[in-house]
Amino acid sequence: MRYALAALAGWLALVPAAARSEGIELEVVASGLDRPVHLAAPPGDARLFVVEQPGRIRIIRGGRLLERPFLDLTDRVRWGGERGLLSVAFHPRYAENGRLFVDYTDRRGDSRIERYHVSADPDRADPASGDLLLHIHQPYANHNGGLVLFGPDGMLWIGMGDGGAGGDPHGYAQDPASLLGKLLRIDVDHGRPYAIPRDNPFRDRTGYRPEIWALGLRNPWRFSFDRATGDLYIADVGQDRWEEVDVAPGAAAGLNYGWNWMEGEHGFREGAPDPRSFVRPALEYGHDQGCSITGGLVYRGERVPALAGCYLFSDYCRGWIRSFRYQGDRAVELREWRTASPGRVASFGEDGSGEAYVVSYDGRVYRIAPARGAGM
Question: Which fold has domain 2-369?
Answer without folding.
Answer: Neuraminidase (2.120.10)
